[in-house]
Specification:
- The chain has one domain.
- The two termini are 18 Å apart.
- By secondary structure, the protein is mostly helical.
- It has helices at residues 3-13, 18-29, 35-44, 49-59.
């Protein structure tokens, strides 16, 4: 599953649009995010770890690394 697919699933579960997520990321990170910018990063797989971390925190999730 791609990052884009995972984020879309989380957005649906949290009843949030990508536009709202971009607005909240602008506040959380302090850098301007638009729907187009965020959607493009998700489509191209160009998210930084800090952006993924912000998305998960905004949506009420956490990132977990599990040893195989």
């Amino acid at each position: 599953m791609t990052a884009r697919e995972r984020v879309k699933i989380m957005l649906v579960k949290e009843n949030m649009t990508i536009t709202t997520l971009a607005e909240k990321m602008t506040i959380y990170i302090g850098k301007k995010y638009s729907r187009q910018n965020l959607s493009g990063k998700l489509s191209k797989g160009l998210l930084k770890y800090s952006e993924v971390e912000a998305i998960t925190k905004i949506l009420g999730y956490k990132i977990e690394f599990i040893e195989l």
